[in-house]
């Protein structure tokens, strides 16, 4: 089953503790989630996300996003709450 078509500028990928894969979709200002069964959904779109590039997930399944066009690093909680962790950082790229 192909789940990678129709991404518009995928730039980062990370996996959480439940086996979900998150993809930073740069051109659509979104983070998409691919579940272990292959189901794909838009996890977060546009709200606080502007040109996501780097993406990482911590042990608590918080998602960290290098918001390239938003000049910030944001955290998305498992409840989809978005918090700006660092603001006014010029064009952040990768996260580890």
Major β-sheet strand ordering: 1-2-3-4
Q: Strand count, sense and closure of the main sheet?
A: 4 strands, antiparallel
Low-confidence stretches: none
H-E order:
EEEEEEEE
The CA-CA distance between the termini, in Å, is: 29 Å
E-strand count: 8
Mean pLDDT score: 91
Q: Roughly how many Å is the radius of gyration?
A: 12 Å
Name the overall outline.
Answer: globular
Class inferred from helices and paired strands: mainly beta
In helices, the fraction of residues equals: under 10%
Helix tally equals 0
The proportion of strand residues reads over 45%
Question: Could you please describe the fold and organization of this structure?
Answer:
With 96 residues, this protein is mainly beta. It has strands at 10-15, 21-25, 30-34, 40-45, 52-57, 63-67, 72-76, 82-87. The chain is globular and about 40 Å long. Strands 1-2-3-4 form a 4-stranded antiparallel beta sheet, with no helix packed on it. Strands 5-6-7-8 form a 4-stranded antiparallel beta sheet, with no helix packed on it. The protein starts with 9 loop residues before the first strand and ends in a 9-residue tail after the last strand. It contains no helices and 8 strands. Strand 6 and strand 7 (72-76) form a beta hairpin. The mean pLDDT is 91.
Notable characteristics:
four-stranded antiparallel beta sheet, 8 strands, 46% strand, 96 residues, 0% helix, globular, mainly beta
């Amino acid at each position: 089953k192909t789940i990678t078509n129709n991404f518009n500028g995928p730039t980062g990928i990370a996996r959480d503790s439940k086996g979900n894969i998150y993809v930073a979709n740069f051109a659509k200002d979104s983070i998409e989630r691919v579940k272990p069964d292959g189901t794909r959904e838009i996890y977060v779109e546009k709200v606080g996300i502007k040109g996501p590039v780097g993406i990482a997930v911590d042990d608590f399944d918080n998602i960290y996003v290098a918001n390239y066009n938003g000049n910030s690093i944001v955290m998305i909680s498992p409840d989809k709450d978005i918090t700006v962790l660092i603001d006014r950082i010029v064009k952040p790229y990768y996260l580890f």
